[in-house]
Amino acid sequence: MTPGDITVSLNWAKSILEFTSESQEKQVQILKNAELNPDEFSGNRRLSMDQTVRLWGACIKNANDPFFGLHFGEQVRPGTFHIVGYTLMNSATLNDALDRLNQYQRLISDGGIFQKLPSKKGVWLVYHQKPDTLPFYYHQIDAVFAALLAFARWTTGKEISPCEVSLNRPAPQSDEEYQRVFKVTPNYNQSFDGILMHQEILTLPLLEADEELCQMHEIHAQQRLNALKQQNSTRQQVALLIEQRLNSQSFHRPLIAKTLNMSEKSLQRRLSDEGTNFQKILDDVRERLARHYLSETTVPLYEITDLLGFTDNSAFYKAFKRWTDVNPGTFRKQH
């Protein structure tokens, strides 16, 4: 996605505003401080990510709460996410719900995606933020993790806590609230934002699991996702599908064309009309993710090879040197 393509559900933005203040008059003032018109909060439109970041800034200033994101996130319930929340809530296990979250994340926001990375202790749920031109507030990351834990606790009926929490920021003056919400002391100044969950936690059944209801909600969610995709260019749709499928080896052109309900020739023609081609989009996605993994995470090089869908380390190294004129190891040391 390019700047301007990243958008956020109006329902999610409204929930942030309503959490900040129940007063209609105060909400209007907050929107004014965020340089947003109240008319933009009507209908089925979506906010740009920069508009959403400005809204967060105005809400944070109004709340005067250093833990605003945590407090907002921990009160989130499945209904906050509407059709996505109901789909997740009726999934069989927490792991199934997380898989569906990534599948339908765009209906909530284009601003980030979860990645599951296995480790000796369990599974890391790493959150990759996707800002536009304005950087995220740390409150936005706090809200994501607090909401994830609130959802897990609500749907399983268990007081779930992660093994570890990794935050890519300096430690606050006091982290008692982080300890209260996460039930563990976070590790600060880390290279990525993520929470580490025991594998058995992810296999916990959900209290409201209902296969029939889940399928019904999923049909609705898929319809809305398809409608949203149609608003974007073919290039944007292809880039998103590639990014979602890279480490599953289902990102090749025939499979992408089939997912978009078109022939390979039609896909090639549409991309050509937009001044690009499938290979260029694949290279752009891989290069962007490779730079991110190497500069902002400690994921081993052999795992990055798999995450980017390369067949072996040699293919990844050659491609990366073609993009940057240096090998991955040198790039990581430099950054």
UniProtKB/TrEMBL annotation:
It comes from Litoribrevibacter euphylliae. SUPFAM superfamilies: Homeodomain-like (SSF46689). Residues 236-334 form the HTH araC/xylS-type domain. Signal peptide: none annotated. InterPro entries: AraC-type_N, Homeodomain-like_sf, HTH_AraC. This is AraC family transcriptional regulator. Keywords: DNA-binding, Transcription, Transcription regulation. Pfam families: Arabinose_bd (PF12625), HTH_18 (PF12833). Gene3D superfamilies: Homeodomain-like.
